[in-house]
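S1.2 Input.
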Amino acid sequence: MLPIAIDVMSGDHEPREYVDGALRALADDRELRAQLVGDLRLLETALARLPAGLRGRIQIVPASQVVAMHDKPREAIRHKKDSSMRLAVDRVHSGEAGACVSAGNTGALTAIAHFVLGMLPGVERAAIISTIPAAHGHTHMLDLGANTKATPEQLRQFAFMGAIIARDVHGVATPRIGLLNIGEEDIKGHEVVQAAHALLGASGLNYVGFVEGDDIFSGDVDVVVTDGFTGNVALKTMEGVAGLIADRLRREFRASWPDRLAGLLARPVLRRTAAGLDPRRYNGACMVGLAGIVVKSHGRAEGVAFARAIGTAALAARRGLTGHIAQALRAEGATT
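S1.3 Output.
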């Protein structure tokens, strides 16, 4: 497998946190090779004392610029051609890397990826897809922030790509597709979701109809489709609720000595539950529809979570995600 190009400069943390995540990923996957893209001096210092075997699987790609979280996408494309983000995407385009990972500015990453890699035939816009913990394991959800608006046709394309990933990467034989709406009734929703509903109904996909927010976790659907604005709000809401519940449980179990004792007795169950719902396990969202693999990590991801995003990129590269989507789109074009 080609190495994974990793932007270690972009995001809310210091670069060393992302370097740590990359080293964790390399330790977890002995076949993985990495290209760390960033400040040359910083990376040479960070890697100086690594064992020879591990150091031999890492290549440093120097970058003199960084795309900041407040940078506008157009400015990032025009004026930051030597940024760690741009160079990581460039490595995928040149064939020197099998995928790239960045925790940086979502708008800039989306724009750079569109500009450098382009889209697969039959796809108008890339969408960010990730897994969400659910009763049956997890639900795939897209778009999670690449496009604040989406046309009915783009939502149909998102559904098709989500079904391919659920089937070919995660082994769901016949993925059930739901379109996120304010109600399950056919009359609910604005004109865009109504038009997308009609397209999906005639698409040949296993489309189950409109779903509501609580259906994301129910296990009754495998892929939830929405625009990036709604998807990103839903994702951040989930993260906030998970944090609130965890904080409330910690406080309640520390309120008194009987509560502390109850907490000790419940600790094994709580640990298993927390591990299953830990947002770090689900970090790393593929930008599907591009002519190359780009994985967006959460900007606040620390080392453990960033390592998961790198693992997601490696899995997508090993499974030939771009080729799977392109082949399926060609097959769809031949039958429609």
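S1.4 Remarks. The CA atoms of residues 132 and 288 lie 17 Å apart.
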